[in-house]
C-alpha cells in the first residue's frame, strides 16, 4: 500500500524528556515506564505504541490516521488518557484507543472517536475494564460511563452514537465528555425551596416544587432530574420565567419521570439563552410544556411585546415529550422568536406545537422569526405541526436553516391546511414575509430506519409536497436543494408530486422512496423512505 502524505503531531515529551522518532510505519514506540506525553495540534497517519504504564494527554488535538488502519494509542499496560479542550480522533479500525490492562480518563474536556461502523460494539475504546461486555454498546442514547472509565475524582459521559460515510467506509462516532467530580455534589428536594435558586454543577433535583420560585441551572453545570415536577398543574402567570432556566450552557441528565411547565404562559418549559447550548440525555422521561411558548426553546413576552429568543438544543437521549402552545413549536421558537440549532442524536422525541413540531414558531409582523439548522442523526422522532405548519421546518413567514436527517426513525406530519403544507420544509407567505427553508438532505447511514413525511389538509382534492415547498406557491417561498442519498430530486419536488396515485420514485443507493395517498376519505400525501431490501 502506498503511504499517504503524513503530518506529525505536536508532542511535548514529559517522560521521556528526549524525543522518540517514529519508525517506518509512522509509529512512535515508547518503552519508558510511566511515560507521559502531550499531543496537540493536527496530525495525519501517526500512531503510538506504549509498552509500559503511561499517561497520554490530548489537548485540542485532531488526527486522522488515514491509511494507517490501526489505533492511535496502543498501550500494553495501564493507560491514563487525560483530556483537555476539544479533541477528535478518526481511524478506519474498530477503536481509537486501547489498553491490554486498565484504561482510565481524566481531565476536563471532550474527545470524539470516529471508527469503522462494523466494529461499533467497541464504542471507540477497548480495555479490560471497558469492552463489549460492559460498555453498553447497544444503548444508542447518551449514558454515564464513569463507573467503567473515570479516573478517581472524575466523571465520564458518552454521547449517543452518530453515523457518517467518508466515501470509503461507514463510520460510527461517540463523544466522551470528561470533567472533575463536583466538590459538593448534592440532592435538592424541590419541595423544600422557598426562594429563587441557582442549581450548581453535580446537583440532583427531585420532588415537586411547591412554591412559585425561579429554578435556574448554573452556567456549565450538569444537573440530574429525578422524578421532578415543576408547575405540572400549569398555574400560568405566576412568574416571569420558564419552568427551568439555563443561565448558560447546561447539561440535563434524565432519570425517572419529570414534568416541567413555564410559570408564565409566555415562557417555555425549559429555556436556554441565545448563543448557549442545552444538552439533554439519560434514560428517564421528560414532558415539557408551554402555553404561548415552546415546550423547550423560546416564547413571546406579551407584556414587553417582544420575543423570547433561545439558543441551541441538543438531545442525546431520554424519552422526551415537548408540547408547544399557541403560535409556538414543540421544540424551537415561540411566536416571532429566533431559535438556534436543534440536534437530535438519540432517545425518543415526540414534539408537537401550534407552530412546527420542531423548528420555528409562528410569524410576527414586527420580528423575523427563525430557526437554525435542524439535524437528526438517531433516535425515534415524531414531529407534528399545528394548523398550516410543517412537522419539521419553517412556519408561514419564517426562516429555517438546513434540515439534515442521517439516522433514526423519523415521522413528520404537517397540520391541516386547505392547500396542503409540507411535512418537512417550509409553509406559505404571511403578511409580506416569505417562508424560507435551507437545503433538505436525507442521507442513508447504518442506523437509517425510516423517514415518513405526511401532509395533513382539509381538502379532498389538493395534495401538497411531503418534503420541500408547500402546495404550488413556489414563486413566493423558497426551499433549498433537496437530496435523497446525495441525489438531487429538484427543489420543487416534481419527482414525487402526484394526484391520488402511487409513484415509486426509484431506488437510490440504499434508499427506496415510496409516495402514496391514503383512502378517498382521508387523502394525505405521504412520502416514506426505508432501507432497500
Describe the model:
With 533 residues, the protein is mostly beta strands. The protein has two domains: 10-180, no CATH class; 196-508. It contains one helix and 53 strands. The strands form seven sheets. The chain has a 22-stranded mixed sheet that branches. Strands 1, 3, 5, 7, 9, 11, 12, 13 and 14 form a nine-stranded mixed sheet that branches. A six-stranded parallel sheet has the order 26-31-35-39-43-47, with no helix packed on it. Strand 52 and strand 53 form a beta hairpin. The protein is globular, with a radius of gyration of 25 Å. Mean pLDDT is 82; it is low at 487-524.
Strand content: over 45%
- Count of DSSP E strands? 53
Shape: globular
> Strand pairing plus helix content: what structural class?
mainly beta
Kindly report the average pLDDT value.
82
Low-confidence stretches: 487-524
Overall domain count: 2
Radius of gyration: 25 Å
| N-to-C span | 35 Å
Total of helices: 1
Q: Biggest β-sheet: count, sense, barrel?
A: 22 strands, mixed
Helix content: under 10%
In short:
By secondary structure, this protein is mainly beta. It contains one helix and 53 strands.
Secondary structure elements and pairings:
Elements: E1 10-15, E2 27-30, E3 35-44, E4 47-50, E5 54-64, E6 73-75, E7 79-90, E8 95-99, E9 103-116, E10 124-126, E11 143-144, H1 146-149, E12 154-158, E13 162-165, E14 170-180, E15 186-189, E16 197-199, E17 203-208, E18 215-217, E19 221-230, E20 244-246, E21 250-255, E22 257-261, E23 270-271, E24 277-282, E25 285-289, E26 296-297, E27 299-301, E28 306-308, E29 312-315, E30 319-323, E31 331-332, E32 338-339, E33 342-344, E34 348-352, E35 358-359, E36 370-371, E37 374-376, E38 380-384, E39 392-394, E40 399-400, E41 403-405, E42 408-413, E43 424-426, E44 436-437, E45 440-442, E46 448-455, E47 467-468, E48 478-479, E49 482-484, E50 487-488, E51 503-508, E52 511-517, E53 525-531
Parallel strand pairs: 2-4, 3-5, 4-6, 5-7, 6-8, 7-9, 8-10, 15-17, 16-18, 17-19, 18-20, 19-21, 19-22, 20-23, 21-24, 22-25, 24-29, 25-30, 26-31, 29-33, 30-34, 31-35, 32-36, 33-37, 34-38, 35-39, 36-40, 37-41, 38-42, 39-43, 40-44, 41-45, 42-46, 43-47, 44-48, 45-49
Antiparallel strand pairs: 1-3, 9-14, 11-12, 12-14, 13-14, 27-28, 46-53, 49-50, 51-52, 52-53
Amino acid at each position: 500500500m502506498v503511504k499517504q502524505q503524513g503530518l506529525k503531531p505536536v508532542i511535548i515529551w514529559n517522560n521521556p524528556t528526549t524525543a522518540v522518532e517514529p519508525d517506518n510505519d509512522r509509529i512512535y514506540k515508547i518503552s519508558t515506564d510511566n511515560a507521559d506525553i502531550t499531543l496537540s495540534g493536527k496530525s495525519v497517519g501517526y500512531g503510538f505504541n506504549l509498552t509500559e504504564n503511561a499517561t497520554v494527554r490530548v489537548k485540542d488535538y485532531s488526527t486522522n490516521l488515514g491509511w494507517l488502519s490501526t489505533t492511535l494509542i496502543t498501550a500494553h499496560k495501564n493507560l491514563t488518557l487525560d483530556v483537555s479542550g476539544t479533541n477528535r480522533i478518526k481511524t478506519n479500525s474498530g477503536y481509537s484507543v486501547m489498553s491490554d490492562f486498565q484504561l482510565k480518563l481524566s481531565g476536563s474536556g471532550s474527545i470524539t472517536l470516529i471508527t469503522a461502523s462494523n466494529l461499533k460494539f467497541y464504542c471507540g475504546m477497548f480495555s479490560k475494564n471497558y469492552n463489549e461486555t460492559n460498555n453498553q454498546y447497544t444503548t444508542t442514547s447518551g449514558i454515564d460511563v464513569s463507573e467503567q472509565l473515570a479516573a478517581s475524582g472524575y466523571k465520564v459521559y458518552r454521547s449517543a452514537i452518530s453515523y457518517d460515510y467518508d466515501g470509503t467506509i461507514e463510520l460510527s462516532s461517540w463523544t466522551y465528555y470528561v470533567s472533575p467530580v463536583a466538590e459538593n455534589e448534592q440532592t435538592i428536594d424541590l419541595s423544600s425551596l422557598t426562594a429563587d435558586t441557582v442549581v450548581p454543577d453535580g446537583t440532583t433535583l427531585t420532588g415537586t416544587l411547591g412554591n412559585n420560585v425561579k429554578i435556574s441551572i448554573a452556567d456549565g453545570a450538569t444537573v440530574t432530574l429525578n422524578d421532578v415536577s415543576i408547575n405540572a398543574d400549569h398555574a400560568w402567570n405566576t412568574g416571569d420565567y420558564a419552568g427551568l432556566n439555563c443561565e448558560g450552557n447546561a447539561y440535563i441528565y434524565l432519570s425517572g419521570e419529570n414534568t416541567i411547565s413555564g410559570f408564565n404562559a409566555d415562557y417555555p418549559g425549559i429555556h436556554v439563552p441565545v448563543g448557549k447550548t442545552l444538552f439533554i440525555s439519560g434514560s428517564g422521561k421528560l414532558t415539557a410544556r408551554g402555553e404561548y411558548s415552546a415546550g423547550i426553546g423560546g416564547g413571546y413576552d406579551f407584556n414587553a411585546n417582544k420575543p423570547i429568543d433561545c439558543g441551541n438544543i441538543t438531545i442525546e437521549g431520554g424519552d422526551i415529550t415537548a408540547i408547544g402552545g399557541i403560535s409556538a413549536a414543540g421544540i424551537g421558537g415561540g411566536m416571532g422568536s429566533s431559535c438556534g440549532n436543534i440536534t437530535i442524536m438519540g432517545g425518543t422525541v415526540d414534539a408537537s406545537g401550534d407552530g412546527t413540531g420542531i423548528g420555528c414558531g409562528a410569524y410576527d409582523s414586527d420580528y423575523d422569526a427563525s430557526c437554525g439548522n435542524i439535524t437528526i442523526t438517531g433516535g425515534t422522532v415524531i414531529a407534528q405541526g399545528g394548523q398550516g405548519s410543517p412537522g419539521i421546518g419553517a412556519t408561514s413567514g419564517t426562516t429555517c436553516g438546513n434540515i439534515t436527517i442521517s439516522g433514526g426513525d423519523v415521522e413528520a406530519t404537517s397540520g391541516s391546511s386547505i392547500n396542503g403544507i409540507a411535512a418537512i420544509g417550509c409553509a406559505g407567505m404571511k403578511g409580506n414575509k416569505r417562508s424560507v427553508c435551507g437545503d433538505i438532505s436525507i442521507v442513508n447511514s447504518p442506523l437509517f430506519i425510516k423517514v415518513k413525511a405526511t401532509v395533513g389538509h382539509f381538502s379532498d382534492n389538493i395534495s401538497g409536497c411531503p418534503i420541500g415547498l408547500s402546495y404550488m406557491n413556489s414563486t413566493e417561498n423558497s426551499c433549498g436543494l433537496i437530496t435523497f442519498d446525495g441525489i438531487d430530486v429538484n427543489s420543487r419536488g416534481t419527482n414525487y408530486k402526484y394526484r391520488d396515485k402511487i409513484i415509486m420514485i426509484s431506488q437510490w443507493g440504499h434508499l427506496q422512496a415510496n409516495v402514496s395517498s391514503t383512502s378517498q376519505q382521508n387523502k394525505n400525501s405521504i412520502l416514506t423512505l426505508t432501507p432497500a431490501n
